[in-house]
Amino acid sequence: MRTRLLTMLCCLLALCCACTPAGVAQLPSPADADGGLTVTFFRCGKADSALLRTDEHAVLIDAGTQDAGEYVLSRLREMGVERLDALIVTHPHKDHVGGADVILEGLPVERAYVGPLRVDSKQSRQFDEALEAAGLTPQTLQAGDALSFGDLSLLVLGPQRTDYEDENDLSLVLRAQYGQTRFLFAADAEKDLLQELLASGQALRAEVLKAPHHGGVEDNSALFFQAVLPEVAVIPCERDTKDELPDEAVLRALRSAGAAVYVTDDGDVTVHTDGTTLAASQ
């Protein structure tokens, strides 16, 4: 009987290991993570929003659509976030800025940062009004700018130009670092911005990649992924047969680069690091 029980336990353990992405430990629960940096990529449909949180600081990168903003705010409250050190909007398209007014109205925010792109839209106007109501003047970030939140640092890698034809190429691309662990947030970067990053000579290597533009494929996507070589890649999108996202070519290229791939349509993705080791869960 004892031998049979041991055999069953070994089989269960083997099954659990088989379900865990290679090279990445499973994090049982975000609540169990003590200290370090926890990054939560929220399930926002085809939209972006990610929380970077240490014991002392909380930074939100993008806020999804208007509806997603309500979800993100509720999750922030569930997680015990009482204030944000910073709200960073990578670019003012509705799937990134649409929920920003909800966040600003629902939580104290100390600072706001934006990229170089300006558009006249309902969502942008609501964001501007919410900023004014909160008494905030947003700072425009550009390549080379650095932000520090205790042991968490952020560096703006791009864009380095402002004359791109495609508005998505004016998205802020950010690299976050905590200890030896790096996160690359590629916003909605498309071919030209990806090429700029590849040609810039900047170190793109990162343990975690927020995949560009909801998992859409570009001619140089595979080259970009090989430059980053992520252990974990997160694609913020909903599986959509119409848009064919995430693109199968992107999934193959990410896995070829060695990444365990998570799609937020399956739920929030949580990545925790103590500065050396990495754990992911969904």
Automatic annotation (TrEMBL):
Superkingdom classification of source: Bacteria
CDD domains listed in its UniProt record: ComA-like_MBL-fold
Residue ranges constituting the Metallo-beta-lactamase domain according to the UniProt record: 46-238
Coiled-coil zones: none
Signal peptide as annotated in the record: 1-24
Entry-linked InterPro entries: ComA-like_MBL, Competence_DNA_uptake, Metallo-B-lactamas, RibonucZ/Hydroxyglut_hydro
Name of the protein described by the UniProt record: MBL fold metallo-hydrolase
Keywords, comma-separated and alphabetical: Signal
